[in-house]
Amino acid sequence: MKIGISGCGAFAECFIPLYKEHPLVDKVVLADIITDRARDAAKRYGINQVVESHDALCQSDVDAIAIYTQRHLHGMQAVQAMQSGKHVYSAVPAAGSMEEIEELVQTVEQTGMQYMSGETSYYYPAAIYCRDKFATGELGEFVYGEGEYMHDMAHGFYEAFQHSGGDDWKRVAGIPPMHYPTHSTSMIISTVGQTLTHVSCYGYRDRHSDEIYGEGRNNWDNPFSNQSALFRTSGGGICRVNEFRRIGHGIGNCVRTSIYGTLGCYEEQGNAQLWTNHAREQEDLADMLHCGNEAGHFDPDLASGQQLDFYSSYAKNHPVHRLPKSFANLPNGHFGSHQFLVDDFVRSVQQNKLAPNHVWASARYLIPGLVAHQSSLKGGEQLPIPDLGSPPEDASLISYDPY
């Protein structure tokens, strides 16, 4: 198959070599409105074709498009690509508003194209571990879950938004934190298989001198740099999600979860990752779930806290056996997730089946955050969360047969 990459920034470069070396991909085409950026990437990775825009990529002969553009563009560009007959992989968030996510789901249903969101947290070692424990019944009934993404603006976000946003980068840097909730929500939802049905959310009004957050300062008139939400789940459980962008945090992962059931729990606090059963027996999971830089990739220009985002190998519980052998020694990142996400998408296109992070799952990851932001604007008022449905009854998930 032929795959186009829309947007050739630093994040996309984590994935370009993976698409290029996947055994089911015979051609990769790069697109960026900054054409020199695309040409430079093409030279680095030995790619022969570059086009000047996402529009041009949609008009090309690629079978699928992987979108790594600015986060507020993902929804409309995914719709355009599918309407052009292309399957779509999209970096998160899937969309920027209820209207966009509704149109995205409708487009998948109308066109029959495969869509997948690249939610990295789905393949975090902790998320895999919790799904396994829930599937075996060792967690028992779901009671309570926590998910949080604590990433201060000064810890790499300034540079990222300046790189992609141009002179008006502050207008897009002020995106409501709850418009980017999927790192947190996906770990809980994918573990327990329940939807989030109601939310009450509070926001912290920002006071920083950089004037990114505040009415009139960004595209959303968003005053909140930190938001904390309490959700009810469809199974009667409870979960809390924190999305913080002004926070003096530096211990452990910036994305983390804890899941509590009637028979056991997984807890992640600081650098501690523990499983506890009903008999109060504990297991230290730090060794099992650790992802290092064993792949040998390292960028001296990145801050130490970003190395695991862009260069991290597998944990002991990652299902490495299902990956193409051609991925060995290639870059990986976000706690070993990149290679699994690329493989999921390529298999989805090749098999014409759903990847785990299909459009209906993606909507369930995103919509609770969109509604949570509205709750915070209303002083924490409890609001219902709409659900856009499930895959068709005759749809099936991809298989992981060996290559």
Describe this structure as you would to a colleague.
The chain is an alpha/beta fold and 403 residues long. Helices cover 32% and strands 21% of the residues. It contains 13 helices and 15 strands. It has helices at 16-21, 35-45, 54-58, 74-83, 98-111, 125-135, 153-165, 169-173, 182-192, 286-289, 307-310, 338-351, 359-377, and strands spanning 2-6, 27-31, 49-51, 64-67, 87-90, 115-117, 142-150, 196-205, 224-233, 238-244, 255-261, 264-269, 272-277, 282-284, 383-384. The strands form two sheets. A nine-stranded mixed sheet has the order 14-13-12-11-7-10-9-8-15. A six-stranded parallel sheet has the order 3-2-1-4-5-6, with helices on both faces. It is globular, with a radius of gyration of 20 Å. The two termini are 15 Å apart.
